[in-house]
């Protein structure tokens, strides 16, 4: 490989790489708001339509850890271009799907080929920037990672309402072709050493079974009432056995398909744990706020998206400065600033009521953006800092995989806690409302304007709303303390945070 390779146009190459990543990350959320329309057009139930999301998530989670092996086998530039072109083709196939079965199959293909795109983009960006500017490259990629999921539901809703749902996939075609063409033209002269690592079939099969079953458990757990369902119990057992075999095999095999030995590096291990926990907590808030706005405060999908979108303002504005000046500071301190800000905004949300206005919701989202701006770049830099140049593609893929898995865990746990705690609070609030309670009867009579039944219905709606609000507040109170605890965890990492990554191209495929 060529440690000092610089593309003819650094900004054009950066544009191609980040555009592909934006397209790929956008696709993780753009279909969400279109599911009811897709279900209606293809003649299936809403429950069946969720497989459009699940298929992408499962296959994406399986492909992510394979990035290191694929990059060693084919080289990173070829892998990036191939993955982007296949993703583009799969997007086109999704758009022309005539049945739900076809769409789910094409989404699974799309998710699988998307797997290597983010970690390879990260590795290639680091490799083309000089050591003193690699922070800017990581900060830019972090901004894309934050902005794209926010833009997804807004863009998806607009396209679905004003055009038709296939266009949420068709828009990827010109973007993917342009990004592939730019990166290939800019980086085809980059020399890379590749070799044919032996295929670790045991690792691959146990990875596919273990991660696939686990993702199904996480995606379908709430719907199937968790361990009351035989499907969830069996899938959990299969996942646990397969993943246990996978871990033992990968740690003892000479050429593992996923290099778990990377956790011997202190900064990679601590940085990855911080990334997983912080992203899981961040993802929980990002999932809960729009749901709460729509179900309890009766916002439309569009206005919910607009209220949430303010979180992207500061990351966009601060990215150039964070990337340029971050390495002048202790990156653990910058990450601590991020976690402190994220904790404070979580505590602010824990005080929300059902009458909170749009301005206040947007203001807290805006302030949270400051925390996001200082979160991704320092943590990514820390976890990559003590990897050897040829380990960075695999390390980035493994960290991204674990981050994605943390998001899936977070989504399932948050959804479960929100509804479960709401049921508990509903029971507490209604335990004194009986036909023998004169105060309760008087209140019902007043609420129903003399009609006891109408009053009971109105009170029930109010109690449900308040139960969900208390549950919402509890979750954010817990998230606040979790972010504060992460400040202690991030200091397990030890500087310097630039030594090995700066010594050569981050992306070398040895």
Instruction: Report the structural category.
Output: mainly alpha
Share in β-strands:
under 5%
Main pleated-sheet profile: none
Tally of helical runs: 23
Intertermini distance: 8 Å
What CATH architecture label of the largest domain applies?
Up-down Bundle
Low-confidence stretches: 501-510
The level 1 CATH classification of the largest domain is Mainly Alpha
Q: Using the coordinates shown, work out and report the CATH topology of the largest domain.
A: Growth Hormone, Chain: A
**Which outline best applies?**
globular
Oligomeric status: single chain
- Chain-averaged pLDDT: 83
CATH H-level superfamily of the largest domain: MFS general substrate transporter like domains
Q: Kindly state the percentage of residues in helix.
A: over 70%
Give the topology string: H per helix, E per strand.
HHHHHHHHHHHHHHHHHHHHHHH
